[in-house]
Amino acid sequence: MPSASSPASTLLRREILDLHAYHVPDSAGYIKLDAMENPYPVPSALRGEIADAVAAAAINRYPDPAAASLKEKIRGVLGLPDGMEVLLGNGSDELIQLLAMALNKPGAALLGVEPSFVMYRMIATFTGMRYVSVPLTEDFSLDLPATLAAIRREQPALIFLAYPNNPTGNLFPADAVIQIIEAAQGLVVVDEAYYAFAGDSFIPRLARYSNLLVMRTFSKLGMAGLRLGFLAGSAAWLEQLEKLRLPYNVGVLPQLVAGKLLEHHGVLLRQAEQIKRDRAKLYRQLSEIAAVRVYPSEANFLLFRVAHATEVFDGLKQRGVLIKNLNGGHPMLHDCLRVTVGTGDECAKFVSALHDTLTQLAQG
User: Fold this and answer.
1) Which helix (H) or strand (E) holds 138?
2) Which region, left, alpha or beta, applies to residue 341 given φ > 0 means left and ψ of -120 to 50 means alpha?
3) Mean pLDDT of the region 244-259
4) Are the C-beta atoms of 168 and 293 separated by less than 8 Å?
5) Helix (H, G, I), strand (E, B) or coil at 203
6) Who contacts 74 (Cβ-Cβ below 8 Å, separation ≥6)?
7) Angle at alpha carbon of residue 287, lines to 285 and 290, rounded to 5°
8) Measured between alpha carbons, how far is 167 from 200 in angstroms, rounded to an integer?
9) Which region, left, alpha or beta, applies to residue 35 given φ > 0 means left and ψ of -120 to 50 means alpha?
10) Cβ atoms of 245 and 266 closer than 8 Å
11) Where are the beta strands (DSSP E) in the chain?
12) Residue 189 and residue 99 in contact, taking contact as beta carbons nearer than 8 Å
C-alpha cells in the first residue's frame, strides 16, 4: 500500500489500492503441483516439428491479426455448431476482462458463485463492475435456488460459471446450469478451462441459447506457456466483442505452436486420459488417509481438507513439493489445500511427503 502522501494513494481508485496482486510463488527446485499444468512434455517427434516451424517463423512481422488458420483448427477440434464463431485471447483472463469491459454499463452486475475462480471477482473490481457472489453449499454443490433468486434480484449483465469449478473440482449438474441460462436476462459464460478432464461440455448447446458463450483455455491441456484462450458462441456476440480485443493479442509463436499442437490434438487428449487415471489413483490414496477429506473432481487437480493446512503446506514445501494453499483465501476453504495431478512419480512423492508431514505434526 502506498503512503498517504504518495500520488498513487490519491490518484488510484480505492478498490484498486485495497486489492492484493495475484501471487505466483517461485517454484524453482520443487515438484510443481500448484498450477494445474499438464505434467507431460510434448513428445520428442512433435517437438522436432515445432522447432522446424519456429525456425522458419517470421517473428520480424506482426502476427495475423485474425489468426484465421488457428481459428480454423480450433473449429475443427471443437466440432462447433453451424453459425458459431471463435474469439481468441491471451489466456482466458484477457477474455474475462474483455467481457466485463463490454457489459459494464452503469450499475451493471457480474454474478459468480463462490468459492470459484478468483479472477471473476478481481476483474469485476479492475473494471469497476458491481460484483455479486452466491455461496456454494457446504459440500461445494451449486445452490440453485439461491442462484436463481440472486439472478431475479440483481439482474446481472454477466454471469460466470466454471464447469468444472475451480478450486473445488466438481462439475455442476447440467440441468441446473441450463436453468440459470434460461433465467438470465444477461450473458452467461460457461468457463470450461478443464474440459479435457470432464464428462460434459456446453459447446453442443451453444446454438440453443442466444445468451450463452463457452470459454476455454488450452493451458491445462499442455499449452500453459502459450497463454491461449478462446470464446465460442454466436457471431452476434463475438463481432461486438472483437471491437474491444487489442490488435495482435496472440503473437506469431503462440499461433504457430498452438496450430501445430492442434494438428496432433489426439496426443494431448491421450495425455489427458492418463491424467484422469492418475487422478483416480491419487483420489483413492488420499481417501485412505484418515486425517484427510478429499473432494471428488472432474478437473486435473484435487481439493482436500486437513487440519492445520498451512503447517501441512509448509511441511510439503520443506520436503520439496509445492501445492496450492487455499487456507484463508475464502471462508469456505478453511484448512483446504489443492494439489495438481502430476505424473505417477510426482504423485507418489507428494503422497509420501504428505504422510511424512502428517506423522511429524502428529508427534508434535
Assistant:
1) none
2) beta
3) 94
4) no
5) helix
6) 86, 230, 262
7) 110
8) 18
9) alpha
10) no
11) 31-32, 84-89, 109-114, 130-135, 158-162, 187-191, 212-217, 229-234, 292-294, 301-306, 321-322, 324-325, 336-340
12) yes
User: What number is the average pLDDT over the span 275-293?
Assistant: 98
Instruction: Please determine, for residue 1, whether its predicted confidence score (pLDDT) is greater than 60.
Output: no
Residue that has been written with the C-alpha cell 474491444 in this structure: 244
Same domain, 237 and 106: yes
Do 245 and 185 belong to one domain? yes
Helix axes 68-78, 252-262, angle to 10 degrees: 30
Q: What is the CATH number of the domain that holds 210?
A: 3.40.640.10
Using the CB atoms, write b or e for 329-348: b if 16+ within 10 Å: ebeebebbbbbbbbeeebbe
Place of cell 495425455: 271
For 255, the domain range is: 59-264
Q: What is d(CA 186, CA 155) in angstroms, rounded to the nearest whole number?
A: 7
Are the C-beta atoms of residues 299 and 315 closer than 8 Å to each other?
A: no
464428462: which residue's cell?
199
The x, y and z cell numbers of residue 44, run together, are 520428442
- Polymer length of the chain: 364
**Taking CA 189 as the corner, what is the angle to CA 184 and CA 194, rounded to the nearest 5 degrees?**
140
Does residue 49 belong to any structural domain of this protein? no
CATH number, domain with residue 12: 3.90.1150.10
Domain count, the chain: 2
User: pLDDT tens digits, residue range 191-214?
Assistant: 999 999 999 999 999 999 999 999
Side chain identity at 352, as an amino acid letter?
A: S
* Residue 116 resides in a domain: yes
User: What's the whole-number average pLDDT of the chain?
Assistant: 94
DSSP assignments along 53-94, one per residue: HHHT--TTS---TT-HHHHHHHHHHHTPPTTEEEEEESHHHH
Which residue type does 273 have?
A: E
Give the CA count within 13 Å in the CB-facing half-sphere of 71. 16
User: Positive or negative CA dihedral for 321, 322, 328, 330?
Assistant: negative
